[in-house]
Design brief:
Length: 330
């Protein structure tokens, strides 16, 4: 039987969770941990549909009335809930024994569980300790470490995985004909999404992609100016120091990715790149500078990041650092 066959990647989840649902041997609580955009909600939705599916063939069949409702978030017995405060956890507990409306099971999908405070977690724990037989919990979180050990010990933890750039590229081309970005630009956005399908789909939207691509290209201009010992680097920073701190942080962090890539193409042929979608472009830029020159720029930027994180007055320290880096040898 095909299990979770619409889920991209995530073989481990298909084999463990999918197989246990297929054999009706599933547990009453799962923690699904993964980076943003790696499909935690999709997994919870598919698993809920699979648990209640009345169809045949694949699991979930996607066609029976139960699947249709659940996969479109329209089933009243499958609830997405965000719990941050203890009152919300208590309310959930109070309704735990209410009977189901239209299904055999009642499923709670708790999103962003890392935001639950300790009191809320303790209140949720009571529900997890002795839930009714027809209740299943999916606790979604970017960080299972933020959950109490007592919660973790009562649930099976599964991890969604980041996808490879090629898998994301093929998936977007196959499923989203409305995204008309040219290949090079789409690849760049996928690089920026670091394996998150959700983020890549979101950013590939025409309006958002423009902003993202222009911020990336500005960071690249900045790095090139620093490496050329160019005054442009200084004036660029002057212009940034008046802007939002987050923008400055983003530029510095992108610059670190860029310089990191330049160092790795200098050192090794097959290394993984984190910024450049085109290795040729990285190699061409890197070929103009010595490894030590690039490494100096990296240390200066790294130091700037530390200062930025600890020092409230951002501009001055940062600029002097970068001017220093630009003036150091070639
Ligand atoms: Zn079905």
């Amino acid at each position: 039987m095909k299990i979770f066959d619409t889920l991209i990647g995530n073989e481990e989840i298909k084999q463990t969770l999918g197989a246990s649902i297929a054999s009706s041997g599933f547990s009453h609580a799962y923690i699904i941990e993964g980076a943003p955009g790696t499909g935690k909600r999709t997994v919870a939705r598919l698993a809920s549909a699979a648990i209640m599916c009345k169809g045949e063939g694949r699991l979930p069949c996607g066609k029976c009335p139960s699947c249709e409702k659940i996969l479109n978030d329209k089933c009243v017995d499958v609830k997405f809930c965000e719990i941050t405060k203890v009152e919300q956890a208590r309310e959930l507990k109070a309704r735990l024994y209410d009977s189901t409306v239209e299904s055999d099971y009642k499923i709670y999908i708790i999103t962003d569980a890392q935001k639950m405070n300790i009191k809320a977690q303790n209140a949720l724990l009571i529900s997890l300790e002795e839930p009714p037989k027809n209740v299943v919990f999916f606790i979604l979180t970017t960080d299972a470490g933020a959950l109490l050990e007592t919660i973790r010990s009562r649930a099976q933890t599964l991890r969604t995985s980041r996808l490879s750039d090629d898998v994301i590229f093929d998936h977007i081309r196959k499923t989203r004909p409305d995204i008309r970005l040219e290949d090079g630009k789409l690849k760049e956005i996928i690089m920026a999404s670091a394996g998150s399908l959700g983020y890549a789909m979101d950013m590939a939207d025409a309006k958002k992609s423009e902003g993202l691509l222009s911020r990336r290209s500005r960071a690249l201009d900045f790095v090139c100016a620093v490496l050329r010992n160019d005054n442009d680097a200084v004036s660029f920073l002057m212009s940034l120091s008046g802007t939002v701190r987050d923008e400055l942080k983003e530029t510095i962090s992108l610059s670190l990715e860029i310089i990191g890539d330049l160092i790795s193409v200098k050192r090794a042929k097959g290394s993984t790149l984190y910024f450049f979608a085109s290795r040729e472009q990285a190699e061409e830029i890197a070929s103009n500078y010595s490894l030590s020159k690039i490494a100096d720029a990296y240390s200066a930027l790294e130091k700037a990041t530390e200062d930025l994180n600890s020092n409230a007055s951002q501009g001055v320290t940062l600029m002097s650092l970068l001017i220093n880096s630009a003036k150091k040898g070639n």
